[in-house]
Amino acid sequence: MQPAPVLCGIGTSLPDRVVTNDDLAARLDTSDEWIRTRTGIRERRVVDPGTATGDLAHAAAQGALKSAGSAEVDLLILATTTPDHPCPATAPDVAQRLGLTGIPAWDLGAVCSGFVYGLACASSFVRSGAATRVLVVGADTYSTITDPDDRSTRAIFGDGAGAVVVRAGTPDEDGAIGPVSLGSDGSQRDAIIVEAGGSRRPLTDAHTTPDGRYFTMRGRTVFRHAVERMAQSAEKVRAEAGWSTEDVDCLVAHQANARIIDAVAARMGVAPERCATSIERLGNTAAASLPLALAEAARSGRLHTGDRVLLTAFGGGATWGAAALTWPDVTPMSI
Ligand code: COA
Questions:
Q1: What is the CA(195)–ligand 1 centre distance, in A?
Q2: What enzyme class is recorded for this protein (predicted)?
């Protein structure tokens, strides 16, 4: 019988520094009231200078391995938009720091959908028999690419990392990952973009302005597409899993904005109390948002062993994806 991918460990890592809405309002033209009512965010974590995405990824991965009860891994995928360097990828360095030198390790660029894309890759490797234990890490430090003077992005994003271990098992086990769906639409490439620093607009280009280095987004467009794509892809995997809407114990949507999460749930007919959220304390942590929300839901008792979980995400590109799984008997670990 073909092996089934089974989630068997989860770890998280957050920077110590908390930045509240009032902290932001002290230097930007914004307010706690505006940010809370438009996004549901009260505070976010931000790295100190010198701490890189790879540091958070490494710590989250250590937590996931501890949670899984084994340091054995034969593949590592790191979803991130904020690698330690433009070149090389950060994943091999994280693997080496974990004592996993020699295994295949690469970065995956699907912006805020990166974790679902990584989970899909891990599932395929496990199903095909090409890997038996895969570390999937989602880690981002958007504070390093957002403009300190831009209230519209600075208020939304936070830094963090989450990681899971996916092992070969059977489809009837708690933790089994079922249907996965991915998609993209390149016509939306400008809606979320860091204009400069790639080959189309190198930093060395004489026409590159300092602003080109920063992350920008068209908030309203992103909002609309995020709701539509996340609801559509989650509905697709729900149907493929053979679950009714009432069967869904927990919907974990990308933590982009509390109003986006509410709109996705409303479209799907999932009651708000069945939605996991970590946005209030963490903001949008990009590729880390789903594993961080899962870990928080498990820690708070919101998620129970055997619960039917739908994950759904949307990110720059545009990219989106969803996955269905049952929740395993695991304790999230943070290092
Ligand atoms: N404080 C105060 N005002 C702000 C602000 C802030 N932190 N951020 C933006 N504004 C202002 C805008 O500058 C704009 O001002 P203007 O009308 O004078 O130009 C006004 O608020 C309205 O902006 P708009 O973008 O229309 O507001 P909105 O209700 O759509 O909320 C977002 C803005 C960014 C919160 C919302 O669009 C959003 O969450 N989009 C999705 C973002 C996201 O999830 N991105 C990542 C997805 S992977």
A1: 20
A2: transferase
CA 151 to ligand 1: nearest atom: 7
Distances (CA, A) of 308 to 63, 138, 164, 252: 23, 22, 17, 11
Q: In angstroms, rounded to a whole number, what is the distance separating the alpha carbons of residues 42 and 260?
A: 16
**Based on the domain organization, do 195 and 133 belong to the same domain?**
no
CATH, residue 295:
3.40.47.10
**d(Cα 76, Cα 70) in Å, to the nearest integer?**
14
Mean of pLDDT values over 196-209: 85
* pLDDT average, residue stretch 108-114: 98
| Per-residue model confidence as pLDDT tens digits over 273-300 | 999 999 999 999 999 999 999 999 999 9
End-to-end CA distance of the chain: 37
Q: Ligand 1 pocket check: which of 152, 188, 192 to mutate, most ligand atoms within 8 Å of Cβ?
A: 152
Domain count, the chain: 2
277 with 243, same domain? yes
State which of 117, 135, 169 marks the end of a domain. 169
Ligand 1 centre and the CA of 23: distance in Å? 18
Q: Quote the tokens at residue 114.
A: 């990166």
Beta-carbon count within 10 A of 206 CB: 5
Its domain, for residue 114, covers 4-169
Q: Is 104 in the pocket of ligand 1 (CB under 6 A)?
A: no
Q: By alpha-carbon position, which residue is closest to atom 48 of ligand 1? A: 315
Q: What Å distances lie between residue 306 and 11, 13, 174, 249, CA to CA?
A: 19, 25, 5, 9
- Look at residue 206 and tell me whether its pLDDT is greater than 80: no
d(CA 192, CA 185): 12
Which one from 8, 21, 121, 254 is the annotated catalytic residue?
A: 254
Helical H runs in 242-323? 258-268, 279-282, 289-299
